[in-house]
Specification:
Its cofactor is Zn(2+). Catalyzes the hydrolytic deamination of adenine to hypoxanthine. Plays an important role in the purine salvage pathway and in nitrogen catabolism. InterPro entries: A_deaminase_dom, ADE, Ado/ade_deaminase, Metal_Hydrolase. It is a single chain. The protein has 335 residues and is α/β, with parallel strands linked by helices. It has a single domain, classed as TIM Barrel (Alpha-Beta Barrel), CATH 3.20.20.140. The chain has 17 helices and eight strands. Strands 1-2-3-4-5-6-7-8 form an eight-stranded parallel beta sheet. Helix 8 links the parallel strand 3 and strand 4. Helix 5 packs parallel to helix 7, helix 8 runs parallel beside helix 9 and helix 16 runs antiparallel to helix 17. The protein is globular, with a radius of gyration of 19 Å. It binds adenine and zinc ion. Adenine binds next to helix 4.
C-alpha cells in the first residue's frame, strides 16, 4: 500500500503526458452516445458488453477493438467532444501539458475529411486550460505510400500539429519501412517520434533512432534486452514514453510487479509515465502513477524524477520547460 503522502504527491504533482492516443481516450459511454448521434451500428448491445470485450491478449487484439471504437467519429464536433473529455480528465490529474497522438488514416479511410479530424481535435486543445499540442501518427501496418498521401493531405493544416509519430502493429513493420516519409517530415521541420520496443525487438529502437531520426521513443521497454542500446539511450538521454497500465493490459508484462520501470530508471534512462489509451487500459495519468508505485519499490524521489522527465522531454520552448521544471521542484520542496 502507498502511504498517504506519496499518493497525494503523485496525484497533485504537476506533470506532462507525452504518450496518449486521442482515439484511445474514447470511453464506452461516449462511443455509444456518438454511435446514436451519428446513426452508426455497433457490434455490442451495451456499454457493459463493450467493456467486457476489453480483455486483450496482445497489441493486435487491442487494435482490432480500438479501430472499431473509432468508427463512431464522423463530424468535427465528435472529434472535439472526444478531445475535450480527455483534456478535462487530464486537468483533473494535474497534467499541465500534453502532446496528443491522432491517427488520421483511421478516419480518412472511412471518408472523413482530414480537416474534420484535425480541426475538431485542435479546437478542443485551444479551448482547454491544459497546454496541448498534436502529433500526427502514421499507421505502420499500412504502406509508406499511404503515409505520404496522408502527409500531403495534412500539410495544408501544418500549423495545427507539431510532430509526426508511428504507431499500430509493430512486429513485422520495422521503422525502416518509413525511412523516406520520415526524412521528408524532418525536412519539413516536424518533431519526430516512433513507437518501438513495445512488442518489437530492441533493434527497432535502434533503427527508429538511426534511420527515422526520432527524438523520443514511445514505449521502448524492451531496450533492456540490449546492454549497448541501453547504455546509448542513457548516454544520449533519449526519452522513453513508458505506459505501465498499457504494458500490463497488452501482456508485455504479466503483472505490474514485473514491470521494468524501476530497472529503466536505475539504468539512468529518461523515463516518463503515460496512459497510452486510457479508456481501454484502466486508467488515466494518476491511475498509471498509482498502479506503478503500488507495485514497485518507488518513492518520492522517483516521483519527482518522473515529473521532471516529463517536462524535460516535452517539445516545448526552453523557457516554458524551465518554468514547469521549477514548478515541479517547488512542489516537492514544499512537501
Ligand atoms: N495505437 C494506439 N495505442 C497503441 C499502442 N500501444 N501501440 C501501438 N499502436 C497504438
Ligand atoms: Zn501508444
Amino acid at each position: 500500500m502507498l502511504n498517504d503522502q506519496l499518493r497525494a504527491a503523485l496525484q497533485h504533482m504537476p506533470k506532462a503526458e507525452l504518450h496518449i492516443h486521442i482515439e484511445g481516450s474514447l470511453e464506452p459511454e461516449l462511443i455509444f452516445a456518438l454511435a446514436e448521434r451519428n446513426g452508426v451500428a455497433l457490434n455490442y448491445a451495451s456499454v457493459e458488453e463493450l467493456r467486457a470485450a476489453y480483455a486483450f491478449t496482445d497489441l493486435q487484439s487491442f487494435l482490432d477493438i480500438y479501430y472499431a471504437g473509432a468508427s463512431v467519429l464522423l463530424q468535427e464536433q465528435d472529434f472535439y467532444d472526444m478531445t475535450a473529455a480527455y483534456l478535462a480528465r487530464a486537468e483533473a490529474d494535474n497534467v499541465r501539458h500534453c502532446e496528443i497522438f491522432f491517427d488520421p488514416q483511421t478516419h480518412t479511410a472511412r471518408g472523413v475529411p482530414m480537416r474534420t479530424v484535425i480541426d475538431g481535435i485542435h479546437r478542443a486543445c485551444q479551448d482547454s486550460p491544459v497546454s496541448a499540442t498534436l502529433i500526427l501518427s502514421f499507421l505502420r501496418h499500412l504502406s509508406e505510400e499511404d503515409a505520404f498521401a496522408t502527409l500531403e493531405a495534412a500539410l495544408p493544416l501544418r500549423d495545427k500539429y507539431i510532430g509526426i509519430g508511428l504507431d499500430s502493429s509493430e512486429v513485422g513493420n520495422p521503422p525502416e519501412k518509413f525511412a523516406r516519409v520520415f526524412a521528408r517530415c524532418k525536412e519539413l521541420g516536424f518533431h519526430l517520434v516512433a513507437h518501438a520496443g513495445e512488442e518489437g525487438p530492441p533493434a527497432y529502437i535502434s533503427t527508429a533512432l538511426d534511420v527515422l531520426k526520432v527524438e523520443r521513443i514511445d514505449h521502448g521497454v524492451r531496450c533492456l534486452e540490449d546492454a549497448a542500446l541501453t547504455a546509448r539511450l542513457a548516454r544520449e538521454q533519449i526519452a522513453l514514453t513508458v505506459c505501465p497500465l498499457s504494458n500490463v493490459k497488452l501482456r508485455v508484462f504479466d503483472k505490474m510487479e514485473q514491470h521494468n520501470l524501476l530497472a529503466l530508471l536505475d539504468a539512468g534512462l529518461a523515463v516518463t509515465v503515460n496512459s497510452d489509451d486510457p479508456a481501454y487500459f484502466g486508467g488515466y495519468m494518476n491511475d498509471n502513477f498509482i498502479a506503478t508505485f503500488e507495485a514497485l519499490p518507488l518513492g518520492l524521489s522517483h516521483a519527482q524524477r518522473l515529473a521532471r522527465n516529463s517536462f524535460a522531454a516535452a517539445f516545448l520552448p526552453a523557457g516554458q520547460k524551465q518554468k514547469y521544471l521549477d514548478e515541479v521542484d517547488a512542489f516537492f520542496a514544499a512537501l
